[in-house]
Amino acid sequence: QKTAYEILTCDWSSDVCSSDLQLDGIADLDAQIVAGVSTRGMTHLATAAQVAALYDGRDYATPEDVHEVLFEVFEHRLFVKPMVLTQQPDFPRALLRQIVTKVPAP
What is the pTM of this model? Predict the structure, then answer.
């Protein structure tokens, strides 16, 4: 099974990124994603999770901290085909929700 990092940073133009994620109303999910999150986006996620942990009074981040900030950090960093956004405007958020629910935290 792929990790969330592998799914989110993959070059979606190749078959290597094929995932078993599915969304209602989207026939071929993998074909709708143009590019995943960059490594800089992953750095921003780590920083945001650390800030969330500090707000909770901890000096370490947990998977829950990552989940808390994931949507705000990544939603605009997923590049999808414009047509899919006309069919499902919340496609990036729905995709991230699938990843959060189906990919186990370390």
Answer: 0.72
Identify the three-state secondary structure at position 33: strand
pLDDT, position 87:
81
> Nearest to residue 102, comparing CAs of 77, 78, 67?
67
**CA distances (Å), origin 35, targets 16, 66, 80, 105:** 13, 21, 7, 23
3-state secondary structure of 73: helix
Report in angstroms the alpha-carbon separations of 92 from 54, 60, 79. 27, 28, 8
Contact between 10 and 16 (Cβ < 8 Å) = yes
Q: Give 1-16 pLDDT, tens digit per residue.
A: 556 666 565 554 444 4
How is residue 69 written in tokens?
């900030």
Cβ atoms of 92 and 76 within 8 Å: the answer is yes
pLDDT for 4 equals 60
